[in-house]
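subagent[fold] <- orchestrator: predict structure for attached chain, return tokens only, no commentary.
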Amino acid sequence: MMSEVQVHTVARQMLERHGFAAIAKAAEQAQACDGRGEADEAKEWRHIADAMKIIRGPHQS
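subagent[fold] -> orchestrator:
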């Protein structure tokens, strides 16, 4: 299991590399892990996606 610091580091790196599409990529990874029965990995990918949403900030209207 990744530490909170590691999760946020990965989230930041993915956002820098892929922009906001990184959130969708993390969600796809989580679904793929679920499909393979890797529940812990899926949970980590969802945690990374949540961290990216926090980094991104609130939606503006």
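orchestrator: received. Logging for downstream: Helices lie at 4-18, 21-35, 39-56. The mean pLDDT is 93.
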